[in-house]
Prior knowledge:
It is built from 15 helices and 14 strands. By secondary structure, it is an alpha/beta fold. It has two domains: 20-49 and 294-398, Aspartate Aminotransferase, domain 1 (Alpha-Beta Complex); 60-292, Type I PLP-dependent aspartate aminotransferase-like (Major domain) (Aspartate Aminotransferase, domain 2, 3-Layer(aba) Sandwich), CATH 3.40.640.10. The strands form three sheets. A seven-stranded mixed β-sheet has the order 4-10-9-8-7-5-6, sandwiched between helices. It has a four-stranded mixed β-sheet with strand order 1-2-3-12. The chain has a three-stranded antiparallel β-sheet with strand order 11-14-13, with helices on one face. α4 (88-101) packs parallel to α12 (277-292), α7 runs parallel beside α8 and α13 (295-313) packs parallel to α15. The longest helix is centred in the C-terminal third of the chain and has 24 residues, at 375-398.
Amino acid sequence: MSAFERRIKEYADRAAAVQGEGLYFYLQPVEAVDGAWATVDGRRKLLASSYSYLGLIGHPAIAAAAHDALARYGTGTHGVRLLAGNTDLHDRMEARIAAFTGSEASVVYSSGYLANVAAISALLGRDDVVVCDKLDHASIVDGCLLSGAQFVRVAHNDIAAFERALRRAPARASRLVVVDAVFSMDGDLIDLPALVEVCRRHGAWLMVDESHSLGVLGERGRGIESHFGLRDAVDVRMSSLSKSVPSAGGYIAGSARLVAYLKHASRAFVFSAALPPASAAAVIAALDVIEAEPQRVARLHDHVRRFRAALQAAGLPVRSDPTPIVPVITGDDEGAMRIARYLDDRDIFALPIVSPAVPPRTSRLRMTVTAAHTREEVDRIAAALSAAWREVTPALTEG
């Protein structure tokens, strides 16, 4: 058996064992979404693992904008943006993102993953140094590896470790620090004010992935800089467009010179087809809605505080971070999967996260609440999760 076949067999065997116990919850076919509810295999389930933090999927203004773009431009474009694939709609989308983020310009890629990989690999070269948080998203890691730069990973949110890494960088090396604003599996924030000072002290550029903070943190959901009262603190702003913004793609925002460079030097822009027009129109409309309906951000934060407080009162080990991502860590895979089964039996859609998506022995339920939930639904999720924790975790300890 070749190494390829052995590696594939190991994963196939692992999946088969979990499926055999009725504990496989991935790739479920969602048939319809209605606010905080989804229909899955004919069953209506309350969503508790959604990335749609502001509950904008299905918003009539966003759907209408996508429909109008589909009628005018069609289902796709004529190719890559540099050649025949650019439209006035794409230009307006990028201008709207720049305005929302307080940047001079932006460039949009076909996914958030590609935005990170494209920007990092285009900015860095063999003689440069890039420093990342150990818990950064996989797309950041892949971009750093692809760049060929000296790649340094430091302990999570350890600002002193960032400073040591930058101090040790060769004098002539260009330095880039890349971090998540909100860490996608833990729900905590990077210490941005402290990191900004370190980067400025050492002449390093700072790139921040706002995929889980756009629409969540700051005034009217403008992100982590607004949350901390900072302005022009980040050199390279990045976010996906498929979470609080209910579309597809990912952007890089920053100076006009940076964006012009990326549009001509980043391979994922030069060699990838343009974002479908309906998706581009949805981005513009979604940012308009986020600005026009600030009550969604306020409602989200009310639900976050309510949910975390209920879990803490029930004895679950959760923090008080100001984000809708609430990790409930069981440690082993089985515990996470059995809690997911308990919730699924009660029509609550919550997914277990196991390695390699998270480090070994940190398996968890990645729970979320959104602006689409009612307070009663938040309470229902919290009560069911607390009951599942009481039932499942003692059995794991005894085992």
